[in-house]
Automatic annotation (TrEMBL):
Catalyzes the attachment of glutamate to tRNA(Glu) in a two-step reaction: glutamate is first activated by ATP to form Glu-AMP and then transferred to the acceptor end of tRNA(Glu). This is Glutamate--tRNA ligase. GO terms for molecular function: ATP binding; glutamate-tRNA ligase activity; tRNA binding; zinc ion binding. Its EC number is 6.1.1.17. It holds the Pfam family Anticodon_2. It comes from Dyadobacter psychrophilus. ATP binds at residue 267.
Length: 516
């Protein structure tokens, strides 16, 4: 183990929007780097030009920024190891591949696509489990191990297409201690002769990733479980390049699973469930396919980060609400699970609700006001404040403060039939008309408190229990059986509107009952 200052990297490929798993990887890298007083790098792994998607890099930057994941070195920030985009580092990688060839740890391979295909078919016909280029099969193929030195040289000089493959030694044990999974031991016979340099001169992911992690002084590779099968190959590459003593430590994070826990989370699950799995909205530039974003769906950035942090990690206590500082302090690899983490959008909604409840009213009001305006609902700051007070504990999203308050702006046209038949009886009629009369005569300030006193006094006089008529009153005022605090609701509606609504109910409901 070494005591070098911690340097971690988030190394996405710009092949589309960053999904929740990718964001969580970035987040854990960030938490660990900040906790250790280390550095966090962003490296764009864009060596696979066929999979490059325009806009994806910008998307990644914006998503990290939204969540408050700050980067110390990267394409935007620059740094001592610039450039941080692999396509701009293309020339650097060849040297290492050639060095491995010179040392007998890699070789040139000239096989055409047809020849590779024929090998695959041959092996399949012979029922060889893994059809691959390896210590046995490479001796039957067209490469610098089977061709003479002159033949190889002349093929290279004539400009024939070739790749450089790693020459995996057949009898090596590869072991490394994953910070989450413990010891991983693999035998080299399990690994095929992976291509390191492609025929277009670009490195493969494996070569570029190892060369860059080495050159950039990365101390910890924190990434998704899907890279675990590649890790033994990476360890071998460090060994072959003579860098094993300074090799980073690995931490492979658990997969994100479908909401029901069966299988890997996919965009299809999100589309079917109507929930986001991406931080920001995304429209695929090639297909026009759209994906929802946490931001646009109304999740707070800090609630989203909190939710993602707990997908695969917990503090070992009951605490679930963590701001970024608290996450940085509490994070540890020992408490990252090995098993996949179920992506439960209800939990994300719960987090959002908690953050909404804890948000101070002034900020909530400032966020809600423009949403009312967007819906062309005219409200004063004071009204928004009242509505926020009324609904704050009942909603998960700021936008619900608008949707859930529509009953305040629209006098009911219809009334819940079942409830009408159940609750609109003679007693209700006399209670409500008595209450209405008391309001007409009422001259004081129309506050929730005074309204309640008024109602209580009226019911006392009529000899009717308050509890008996509350639902009928709500029905008369809103048309429905459930809703927020009725006294505050009446205060917001104002005296005139309350009287109008009570009058409406008194005249309309008898007819509704007759027709039933
Ligand atoms: N470019 C890889 C990805 O897209 C990086 C994997 C790694 O972190 O090594 O996930």
């Amino acid at each position: 183990m070494n005591n070098k200052p911690v340097r971690v990297r988030f190394a996405p490929s710009p092949t589309g929007p960053l999904h929740a798993g990718g964001v969580r990887t970035a987040l854990y890298n960030y938490l660990f780097a900040r906790q250790q007083g280390g550095q966090m790098l962003l490296r764009i792994e864009d060596t696979d030009q066929n999979r490059y998607v325009p806009g994806a890099e910008e998307y990644i930057l914006e998503a990290l920024q939204w969540l408050g994941i700050t980067i110390d070195e990267g394409p935007q920030q620059g740094g001592p190891h610039a450039p941080y985009r692999q396509s701009e580092r293309k020339e650097m990688y060849r040297e290492y591949a050639e060095r491995l060839v010179a040392e007998g740890k890699a070789y040139y391979a000239f096989d055409t696509a047809e020849e590779l295909d024929a090998m695959r078919k041959r092996l399949e016909a012979a029922k060889v489990a893994a059809a691959q280029y390896n210590a046995i099969t490479r001796m039957e193929m067209t490469n610098s191990l089977t061709l003479s030195a002159e033949e190889t040289k002349s093929r290279l000089e004539s400009g024939e297409a070739y790749v450089i493959r790693m020459k995996i030694m057949p009898k090596e044990d590869i072991r490394f201690n994953d910070l989450i999974r413990g010891w991983v031991v693999v035998h080299s016979s399990q690994i095929d002769d992976k291509v390191l340099l492609k025929s277009d001169g670009m490195p493969t992911y494996h070569l570029a990733n190892i060369v860059d992690d080495h050159l950039m002084g990365i101390t910890h590779v924190i990434r998704g479980e899907e890279w675990l099968p590649s890790a033994p190959l990476h360890v071998l590459l460090y060994r072959y390049l003579g860098w094993e003593s300074t090799m980073p430590q690995f931490a492979h994070l658990p997969l994100l699973l479908k909401p029901d826990g069966n299988g890997k989370l996919s965009k299809r699950d999100a589309d079917l469930g109507g929930f986001p799995i991406f931080p920001l909205e995304w429209t695929d530039p090639n297909t026009g396919d759209k994906a929802k974003g946490f931001r646009e769906e109304g999740y707070f950035a800090d609630a989203t980060a909190n939710f993602l942090a707990l997908l695969g990690w917990n503090a070992g206590t009951e605490q679930e609400l963590f701001n970024m500082e608290e996450l940085i302090a509490a994070f540890s690899f020992e408490r990252v699970h090995k098993a996949g983490a179920r992506f439960d959008i209800q939990k994300a909604n719960w987090f959002n609700q908690q953050y909404l409840k804890n948000l101070d009213d002034a900020r909530l009001i400032a966020q809600a006001k423009p949403l009312f305006e967007k819906q062309k609902i005219n409200v004063t700051d004071e009204q928004v404040a009242q509505i926020v007070f009324l609904l704050k504990d009942r909603v998960h999203f700021v936008k619900e403060i608008v949707s859930e308050s529509s009953f305040l702006f629209n006098t009911p046209e219809t009334y819940d039939q079942e409830l009408v038949l159940k609750k609109w009886d003679e007693q209700a009629v006399s209670a409500i008309s008595g209450f209405k009369d008391s309001l007409v005569a009422f001259e004081g300030e129309f506050t929730a408190h005074n309204i309640k006193e008024n109602l209580a006094a009226t019911m006392e006089t009529l000899g009717i229990k308050m509890g008996k008529i509350m639902q009928a009153l709500r029905l008369a005022l809103t048309g429905e059986g459930h809703g927020p605090d009725l006294m505050v609701t009446m205060e917001i509606l104002g005296k005139d509107e309350v009287i109008t609504r009570l009058d409406n109910a008194l005249t309309r409901l008898p007819a509704q009952i007759r027709l039933a």
